Amino acid sequence: MLEQLYIKNVALIDEQTIEFSKGLNILSGETGAGKSIIIGSLSFVLGARANKDFIKKDKDFATVKALISLKSEDIKKEIINLGIHIEEDNLILIDRTYNKNGKNICKINGQPATLGMIKEICEKLIDIHGQHQHQSLLNPAKHILLLDRFCEDKLLKYKKELINLIKEYKNILSKISEFSMGKDREELIDFFSFQIEEIEKANLLEDEEEALTKERNILLKAEKIKNLYINTLELLSDDELSALDRLNICIGNVEDLAEIDTDKKILYDIIQDIYAKLEDLIQELKRANQNLEFDNFRLNEIEGRLVIIQKLKRKYGASIKEILKFKEDTKLKLDNLINSEQKLIKLSNEKEILEKKIKSNCIKISSIRKESAKELEISIEKHLVELNMQNCKFKIDITQKDTFNQNGFDKVEFLISTNLGEDLKPLAKIASGGEMSRIMLSLKAVLSFADTIDTFIFDEIDSGISGRTAQKVAEKMVFLSRNNQIICITHLPQIAVMGDRHFLIQKQSDTTNTTTSIFKIDNEDIVKEIARMTGGATITEHTLFSAKEMLEQANTIKSQI
């Protein structure tokens, strides 16, 4: 449920907070007061596209925040799986800012988010429906989704199975395409064989490049290394004042010291150990010096080997490990090509088995749809009758396509006849704007019980209706608001009097500025607004009395729904 909407620097609004309630929330106001700004702000924070005109004049950014309470545990888990933390109060705060350079800053509960994440979350929580959004009803491609929402519990198992079967089916088709190379097959066999032979001929070892590079560096600097050995050995042992001689003198001194002060014997042990280690070091340096030789032949051999490795790296991978993996992968491809005929036969059999499974699954899905379509037709016709469309016939046409996808092989289209004697025709060819609003409202009323969406927003769907029909639409909204939050922007008093909470949208102007504000109104202010909606700009005692009477009647009707 939408608990709160915060708007800052949007069109004519400076800064505004609207606190919505359960049930039916009414927004009304004079033409041009800024009702579209509210819908625009809602659409924006729920992920709709924006442009610079959305930002209030002379401001650098626009911000809209929506505080939404979660009712469904399944949706809560989905949001958590997106990496969003949710507190124990089950509230999420959607925060979106748009600045003049076209940059969006999006957050969910204070955590950075993308527009895609916001859309994914909000489309399951809030549904905005207005005159320009009847396209979902006019587009037959959307009808199958609406029907599936009605029977989702029955379909869920089979649709999941179908998705997995189609994934497996596409994988097999890809393999069949890979093996069905025709004339290219022999060329690929030769090419893959050449690649494998070239790599195997090199006899690569996974760690050899590093070892070769290290050995090459030593050979290139052999003369410098030999000089360092010689100089170090001279300092340690060859000169008369070498480190070894000096240390030997120190040993005698410490030995005499230990004879005088027996507590210092440990020092004698330490210096003896140092002397032994220094002798070991000198011997190791001498061996290394004797073994070090500049081998030009070995250097050339290493250089040639590294050239081969670099050549293979340019062709087959960034490292020897990757080259060897490429070889194994290519061997697998070659084996598949060589044995393609046998494998094609096997894959074709697997494909045929999968097609049978998919067809069986699609038949089950189609059967569930056809059974549920009858229930949906009856329910929608019942609601349409209640909305003053007594002679309306609603039909869900389900036909089978030659192809299938994750929705099965059904083609679903809503058909309608609004008058006696008329043939059933597609919605787009027969329904008027007012009729479309009532059909949509009937669908919402039926699907709301099978829907995860808690909040429905209706933007002037009452256009094109009046009188008794408007009263019926109002009663249907009250019915829908018993299980869902409804936010309705309306210009009809028959709908406005049914509200549980009423907001007035007003536009004020001074000599330099025009702003739009939204106020929650109660009691006498609601009476005045209903009177304005009934009688126009001039409010009289008669219109006030009429407004009070309408509100009293509305309370009686609401208590009976």
DSSP, total strands: 15
Main sheet properties: 6 strands, antiparallel
Number of helices: 20
> Averaged pLDDT, please?
87
Q: Identify the CATH architecture of the domain at 1-125 and 453-521 and 557-561.
A: 3-Layer(aba) Sandwich
Helix proportion: 55-70%
CATH topology of the domain at 1-125 and 453-521 and 557-561: Rossmann fold
Question: Rg from C-alpha positions?
Answer: 41 Å
> CATH homologous superfamily name of the domain at 1-125 and 453-521 and 557-561?
P-loop containing nucleotide triphosphate hydrolases
* Beta-strand fraction estimate: 15-25%
- N-end to C-end Cα span: 21 Å
CATH class of the domain at 1-125 and 453-521 and 557-561: Alpha Beta
User: Regions with pLDDT < 50 over 5+ consecutive residues?
Assistant: none
Structural class: alpha/beta
Which geometry do the CA atoms define? elongated
Strand order of the largest sheet: 2-1-4-5-6-7
Topology:
Elements lengths: L1 E9 L2 E7 L4 E5 L6 H11 L15 E9 L3 H9 L9 E9 L4 E5 L2 E3 L1 H8 L3 E5 L4 H4 L1 H11 L1 H28 L4 H18 L6 H13 L1 H17 L4 H18 L4 H27 L4 H21 L3 H19 L1 H47 L6 E13 L2 E10 L7 E2 H4 L2 H15 L7 E5 L7 H15 L3 E5 L3 H4 L4 E9 L4 E8 L1 H13 L5 H20 L1
Parallel strand pairs: 3-13, 3-14, 8-12, 12-13
Antiparallel strand pairs: 1-2, 1-4, 4-5, 5-6, 6-7, 9-10, 10-11, 14-15
